[in-house]
Amino acid sequence: MTSLLLLVSCISVSIGVLDVNLSAMASGNLDQIEILLVSRLPRLLAVLCTGAGMSVAGLIMQQLCRNKFVSPTTSATISSAQLGLLLAILVFPQATLKEKTFFAFTMSIAGTYVFVLFMQRLKCKDIIMVPLVGIMFGNALGGITSFLAYKYNLMQAMNSFLVGDFSLVLKGNYEIVFLILPLLVIAFSFANHFNIVGLGEDFAKNLGVPYTVVLFGGLSIAALITASVVVTIGTIPYLGLVVPNLITILKGDKLKNSLIDTALFGALFVLICDIVGRLVIFPYEIPVNLIVGVIGSVVFLGIIFWKLSSHVPSVHTRSAQTTTKGGCGCDQ
To answer: Residue 56 domain-assigned?
Structure first.
């Protein structure tokens, strides 16, 4: 997968309205070098960091929440980050990128914590019910964001953050996504702790793992990754949902075994979608969130049907559940 990622990265750098000539750069052509350093290379790095970061964020959230349909998209993390970004623009109209990231991170982590509290109080923790609650909560936050944006005439400014697009990535306005790299290292270092917490509170405490600290620490990592992406690139749906599911189907649920593959495949997936968006109507381009959304929605539906079909209980199992749980399959 690494070799394929390098190959596709080289293809990505070569695509654009202006041609990039390696021989011209080798001979010292400053215009060619400027195109590479100011536009093409920053865009490539932003794509790779975004793909790897959002995929790993989704993997961590699925492990900690013990639900394969939880992700920054279905847990209100992205919607909370968008609300925080709007508040930053309202409170500090001249806010810097770092200040916007701080507001987005604060709101995204608060929204994620509220979602987890909702999830812990759900009596019926069905595999579909949990993300549905997250989607409804996220839509409620999205409604608040849209209301405030319309009221203070900021809808046009907000739309630029609602659409995931790499076309405006240039040197000097994207570097905040490099926050993802140390967060990925931290996530890999604590992968075993996330696995243990994913087995339940009692199990974690019996092994001496501080359940609450690890749980909210992992969610904070996912929230910070999401905030940095929303501020610099915008919203990219389904990425943190479909990529971790595809990798865990192939590699299993052990986080340390699948984390690197998730990061690599997420980066490759977004990079391919970005290239497709740039070539479909060349020299114009389609925002990457549209390409990822179309592909991701199809894959998401496929995963739902596969999960439901693989978890359909037999007649004897249903009878046992009806006898022991009152017939609803929920915790009493």
So the answer is: yes
